[in-house]
Design goal:
Elements (H helix, E strand, L loop, with lengths): L1 E5 L6 E5 L30 H23 L12 H30 L6 E4 L2 E4 L2 H16 L12 E8 L12 E8 L3 E3 L2 E3 L2 E3 L3 E4 L4 E9 L11 H12 L7 E14 L5 E12 L5 E13 L2 E10 H17 L1 E3 L6
Antiparallel strand pairs: 1-2, 3-4, 5-6, 6-16, 7-10, 8-9, 10-11, 11-15, 12-13, 13-14, 14-15
Length: 340
């Protein structure tokens, strides 16, 4: 029996000895997307992600077809006239099919997985990120290097780094202290940045999945009246967090309580960070309350105190609480940054 394979390069066919018909997926060349899929022709795609997706899909389809062929019963007319001939034919056919599957699996490993480059230190282990993510991290680290700051080395899976200058509006009426803010956030969250107009800069740096009740925001407030930040009592850190929660309105929460306080990291600029876990009740406009839990990272760079606070519903905290703590631990603030 003749086994035929289809070529996507103009639809040419080739004949091979074997026991069944195997048809590989056909992709006609276009100027917009793919060129062809063929074991002896190179892949030629306009985008790396398209190459990965289409090649991986086609390879998986080919694997499925190969297993289907292996399970096909031998047709009566194709059987050999003797048991010896049948055994030889069956052995040869099985070997060719096994070789076919091995080649396809090799193509999956070589084409579908080879795009996962750029090794990255993730939680103390070597991981891999997609090229677009690696490019984004490289850009951010180049920006940090331009300010003379250390690079970001640890980006857990599912997170993205954010580096933003707070207080860009130099010379405006509402001038702010210029700070560089850095933290990780879940990649699917929406990021918001301050707006600038003729009156100065308004708003803050924030991120969230607001439909689910997840939010994080940067806060700047007056520092302690006396002493260093790490010498302040628990009540002071609670005051910082409640001021952060009430940035827009002080009448949006009740029954605030600090659950836990611990020392965080000490940054390269010498700033000490303190991690505060808390809970409170959110007062809604509809007249009911929502139990919320959160975590904040508090530090002092310059005369003011800075914080990144992250909160979600008490129910979702059980699911994403560790992610919120990861965000808080990644928070860094640097001063001495010249505004644009």
């Amino acid at each position: 029996m003749v086994r035929q394979s289809w070529c996507g390069c103009g639809g040419a066919r080739g004949s091979h000895q074997g026991g069944a018909v195997i048809k590989l997926p056909i992709f006609e060349p276009t100027t917009h997307t793919y060129a062809c899929i063929h074991p002896t022709h190179p892949l030629n795609f306009t985008t790396g992600m398209m190459k990965q997706s289409v090649a991986l899909l086609c390879a998986l389809v080919s694997v499925a077809q190969g297993f289907f062929v292996l399970q096909q019963p031998m047709r009566q007319g194709a059987r050999c006239s003797s048991s010896k001939q049948y055994a030889e034919s069956s052995s040869s056919d099985s070997s060719s099919r096994l070789g076919f599957l091995q080649r396809v699996v090799g193509q999956v490993a070589g084409v579908g997985l080879a795009v996962n480059v750029a090794p990255l230190l993730v939680g103390g282990k070597v991981g891999f990120v997609q090229p677009a993510q690696a490019a984004g991290l490289t850009k951010i680290n180049n920006e940090l290097a331009g300010y003379g700051l250390p690079p970001i080395l640890d980006v857990p899976g599912g997170f993205s780094p954010l580096v933003e200058v707070y207080g860009k509006a130099a010379g405006a009426r509402k001038e702010r202290e210029t700070l560089l803010v850095q933290f990780l956030y879940p990649s699917l969250w929406v990021v918001s940045k301050p707006s600038i107009d003729k009156n100065g800069e308004e708003g803050t740096i924030s991120a969230g999945d607001y439909q689910k009740g997840d939010s994080a925001a940067f806060f700047v407030g007056d520092g302690p009246e006396s002493g260093k930040l790490d010498q302040q009592p628990n009540e002071y850190f609670g005051e910082v967090v409640t001021r952060a929660i009430g940035q827009k309105s002080a009448n949006v929460y009740q029954n605030f309580k600090v659950l836990k306080k611990r020392a965080g990291a000490k940054a390269s600029n010498g700033a000490q960070y303190t991690i505060v876990e808390f809970k409170y009740e959110l007062l809604t406009g509809a007249g009911f309350t929502v139990d919320r839990k959160g975590v904040a990272s508090v530090t002092q760079v310059g005369k003011n105190v800075q914080a990144l606070w992250i909160a979600t519903t008490a129910t979702r905290w059980k699911k994403i609480g560790d992610d919120c703590i990861t965000m808080a631990d990644s928070f860094r603030v640097y001063d001495g940054i010249a505004p644009a």
